Amino acid sequence: IIVGSIYINNQNEIKLDSSSAFGAALVAYSNLDYDNAKFQFESISSNYQGTESQIFSNYYLGRIAYELGNFNEAKLLLNDFLNNTEKATFVCGAIKQLVDISFNDNDYLESLNIIAKAKMFDLNNISKLELKLLKINTLIKMNDLQGAKIEVGKVLNSKNLPSNIEQKINEFEGLLSVL
User: Fold this and answer.
1) At what angle do helices 2-30 and 34-47 cross, to 10 degrees?
2) Which of 28, 51, 156, 169 could be bridged to 37 by S-S, CB 3.0 to 4.6 A?
3) What does the alpha-carbon distance between residue 44 and residue 35 come to, in Å, rounded to a whole number?
4) How many angstroms separate the CA atoms of 115 and 111, rounded?
5) What percent of the chain shows pLDDT beyond 90?
6) Angle CA(21)–CA(22)–CA(27) in degrees, nearest 5?
7) CB-CB neighbours of 22 under 10 Å
8) 76 near 57, Cβ under 8 Å?
9) Which residues lie below 8 Å from residue 103, measured CB to CB, with a gap of 6+?
10) Which ranges in 33-124 belong to alpha helices (H)?
11) Which CA distances in Å does 107 have to 90, 133, 137?
């Protein structure tokens, strides 16, 4: 019983320490101090392996790499994040960045595969709709206009569309009507 209690206390301390370090790294990131943030997120990744803070640090390291134009590094880190997280937090952002990278490579099939990864997560409705818009955009880039029209119809049949989503769908609908 004593050993179990010590283990639980140690795990709680690790969780608290990693959360505190993550908070400090987020402050550096939000201040656009990418060098400092990167160092702190890398430290969390190596010192707190297996914690939620370590997994989320990989997301932010991927974002930093993406923002600095290091797309290969960003792909590795963002895919690592998606493969290891159990929570939907940051999933939509990671997918959007990975899709953007695949767009830059003109690899639209990869874009669809990345978007399909979202099904593994319990995303909120707004995130699901945003990813449907991304899928429509991908289908248009692939010149699969019929597929894009079908997806537009599915979104239009959704109830209570937010105005920004409805506006974007209407834009896609107008674009598809002239193509």
Assistant:
1) 170
2) 28
3) 14
4) 6
5) 80
6) 100
7) 21
8) no
9) 111, 138, 141
10) 34-47, 52-67, 71-84, 91-104, 108-116
11) 23, 17, 13
> Is 74 in contact with 101 (CB distance < 8 Å)?
yes
136, two tokens: 């429509």
Residue 102 tokens read as: 């695949």
Measure the N-to-C terminal CA separation of the chain; round to a whole number of Å: 70
pLDDT in tens, 13-71: 667 778 888 999 999 999 999 999 999 999 999 999 888 999 999 999 999 999 999 99
Q: What is the mean pLDDT of residues 159-171?
A: 91
DSSP letter at 117 equals G
Amino acid identity for residue 33 in this structure: D
Structure tokens at 140: 């248009």
**For 143, how many CA atoms within 13 A lie in the half-sphere containing its CB?**
1
